[in-house]
Amino acid sequence: MSWPASLPAALAPRWLTHSIRNKLLAMALLPLLVVLPLLVGALLIWGNAAYDRLLITKVRSDLAVARGYFEQVLSEVGFGTHAVAASHALFQPLQRRDLPAVQALLARESRRLGFDFINLYQVDGRLITADWLPSALPSSPIHAPATGAAAIHARISTDHASLARLEPAELLALAPHLAPRIHIPLIPTRSAVPTTRSVEDRALVMLATTPVRGADGSIVALLRGGVLLNQNLPFIDHINRIVYPEGSLPFGSHGTATLFMDDVRITTNVRLFQDERAIGTRVSQAVREAVLTHGETWLDRAFVVNDWYVSAYEPLLDAAGERTGMLYVGYLEEPFRYVKYGMLALIVGIFLVVMVLAALFSLRWARSIFRPLEQMNLTMQRVEDGDTGARVGLVSARDEIGALAGHLDELLDVIDEKTRALQRWAGELDAKVVERTQELAQSNASLQQAQQQLVKSEKLAAIGQLTASVAHEINNPIAVIQGNLDLMRETLGAQATPVKAELQLLDQQVERMRLIVTQLLQYARPTEYAGYVEAVDVNQTLENSLVLVAHLLARTRIEVERDLQATARAGVNRQELQQVVINLMINAIQAMPEGGRLRLRTRNREDGKTGVLLEISDSGPGLSERVKERLFRPFFTTKNDGNGLGLWISVGLVERYGGSIEGLNRRELGEDADGAVFRVWLLTEPLAPQDGPTGPMEARRA
Questions:
Q1: How far apart are CA 141 and CA 94, in angstroms?
Q2: What is the b/e burial string over 394-406, where b = at least 16 CB atoms within 10 angstroms of the residue's CB?
Q3: At what angle do helices 334-384 and 400-442 cross, to 10 degrees?
Q4: How far apart are CA 321 and CA 643, in angstroms?
Q5: Are 440 and 447 in contact (CB under 8 A)?
Q6: Which alpha helices (H) appear in 86-179, and where do they start and end?
Q7: Using alpha carbons only, how large is the chain's radius of gyration in Å?
């Protein structure tokens, strides 16, 4: 973390302004301690919400399945009643007024259709017969009570099935044998709306009324069929099996379904205890207001009897559109809640492990930066205190800081050496002064000679330092002189013949000055002139290099293909060329970790220059455009453990002798294969790099 230059130092924390260690630790740890916790928090919030949405989405689809089956059964009640009313089997005995046969038919059809009752009425509402009556029927019609069938007939339309919420007397008029099922004691329920009632004795019925027509199409009777939903356990269990078949809910959860009349469970598979169903319990006040009061569909977690469920409630409407009850489906939330918390805990744990590991790695990397700097700072303090032998020593860093530590030690060595030399020279000078002083007593002439020798030595030392300082600058006027001499020859042409000897003399002197400068620069830059040039057989160099990388080839499934046809020799330092070749071979081997083919190829140059073309190619993935663009830049690497200096150094070594290196893909050379190829262009007679391009790489740079 860096503080802007415009920020007053007093505003920065003191612990940051006085130690690079603290600055690096802050840079390494603050992103981990701030960014990662924020990411974890955001992920936890999003994951929790997304998981809850998935649960709600599932229960919504479960409700759709239950509603579909409920509506199907309601339609079957209507269609079944209509089918019986329109059947010829009913028409014939009814026309003969054979009431026992009609009653037997109704009982048979009621069992087949799964109805709780099928009643036959006269048009004025008087009961003719029913499936629930004894087989011995009176010959005259039975009159229903005033509050019974006639009242129902007066408010329910025909030819369709619908829900109806009936008072006890109304149900008894339809099917008195169902009276035990409508008596439901109310069980006190937590969070329900307070009530003074202790028993629910109303009935919720799927009811259909269909006219029975005579031969002339007139209505001769009314047929009414229905299914009582109160304590209808097979019906609700079948819904539950359809919505939640065995094995459909993971993690040990289980599904439930319920039918409500108003807010009372009239049939359900929710258990109060092991085998006792929660019939008679009531829904919470929040659900009642949302579903029954406002007509909304409830999709949320809800407390059902004695546990939390992911629940869906939907209002049930009667023929008049009034909300008479609710359809409910849901599944136990607890297993899913534990799974959700486990997943969130796992995410937090992974992030914590990542944070700890990242912090450890960051601290390790930061230590590799500030430790060498601290060592250098301590070394300078010791030198300032008079310990001229203090040195940074070996550091583990191999980056710029490591190089800087090495340069500091080298600088201290040079300073120490120069100091000792000056001290030695001072001692020698003192000795000479003493000697000359003694001789002065004997001869004034000897003293003058000693003084002249001392002045001469000092001048030579100054000239030597000055020469080393300006050696680089001399090459520029030399180049100007040489250029003007060449221009004079071209301009004068034949007219330069009279002064040809003088011009040659000037050329000789310019070349002499260049050699002198080169000799001076060899002391200033010895590494640039360290190579001993000889005529090298590149074919033999490749064979020797293969021996040196044989241990790497032995660990791979790489085949070596040789195509060595070069007959010319290269003017280059043998060891430096071998260094370049080994570097390119190692890169090719590392590009084929799963094995492949390493091809070594040499040819005589065919570009108008005398020299050798050396190619090293692999069958790896090749070079991307981004890699090719930055291939020979210092510190660029595609390897985790590389330093990015191999190719850069190789280019410098080759260009020192007027050569060049280029990296291409094999397909760019017309080959039908993947892989990279590195081409090394060398000259038989080496040239300095500035003398002109020697291959495609230099031409491309120009």
A1: 13
A2: ebebeeebbebbe
A3: 10
A4: 80
A5: yes
A6: 88-96, 99-113, 149-155, 168-174
A7: 52
Dihedral pair phi/psi, residue 4, rounded to 5°: -60, 150
β-sheet bridge partners, residue 118: 225
Mean pLDDT highest for which of 5-14, 180-189, 479-488? 180-189
Give 696's contacts (C-beta < 8 A, 6+ positions apart): 660, 662, 679, 681
Tokens of 593: 């970790």
CA–CA dist 62, 255 (Å, integer): 10
CB 94, CB 83: distance < 8 Å: no
Percentages of the chain per state (helix, strand, coil), in multiples of 5: 55, 20, 30
Q: The whole model's pTM is what?
A: 0.48
Q: Can you tell me the mean pLDDT for 31-38?
A: 72
CA atoms in the 13 A half-sphere facing the CB of 318: 18
Q: Cα 323 to chain center, whole Å?
A: 51
Burial 319-343 (b: 16+ CB within 10 A, else e): eeeebbbbbbbbbbbeebbeebeee
Write the CA distances from 335 to 55, 240, 255, 420, 547, integer angstroms: 12, 19, 12, 83, 66
Residue owning tokens 């590991």: 357
User: Is residue 565 within a helix (H) or strand (E), and if so which, with residue range?
Assistant: none
Look-up: residue for tokens 């150094």?
649
The one-character DSSP state at 148 is: T
Question: What is the structure's pLDDT at 214?
Answer: 86
Structure tokens, 294 = 């406002």
Q: What integer pLDDT is reported at residue 78 of this predicted model?
A: 92
Give the whole-angstrom CA distance, residue 169 versus residue 148: 7
Residue 275, both tokens: 């085998």
d(CA 37, CA 59): 33
State whether residue 614 is helix, strand or coil. Answer: strand
Asked whether the beta carbons of 243 and 257 are under 8 A apart, the reply is: yes
User: Nearest CA to 134 among 99, 158, 172?
Assistant: 99
Q: How many CB atoms lie within 10 A of CB 14?
A: 10
Cα separation, 631 vs 156, whole angstroms: 89
Residue 505, judged by CB atoms within 10 A of its CB (0-12, 13-18, 19+), counts as exposed
Identify the bridge partners of residue 602 per DSSP, sorted by sequence position: 564, 614
- Distance (Å, whole) CA 419 – CA 388: 10
Q: How many residues does the chain have?
A: 702
Q: Are strands 307-317 and 298-304 parallel, antiparallel or unpaired?
A: antiparallel
With contact defined as beta carbons under 8 Å apart, do 649 and 633 qualify? no
Residue 527's alpha-carbon distances to 427, 469, 523, 652, 653, in angstroms, are: 33, 18, 9, 11, 11
SS3 643: coil
Question: How far apart (Å, rounded) are the C-alpha atoms in residues 566 and 539?
Answer: 7
Q: Which residue in 291, 328, 318, 323 sits closest to 170, CA to CA?
A: 318
Report yes or no: 370 and 28 within 8 Å, Cβ to Cβ: no
Average pLDDT over residues 466-494: 74
Please give the average per-residue pLDDT across 12-22, as a whole number: 57
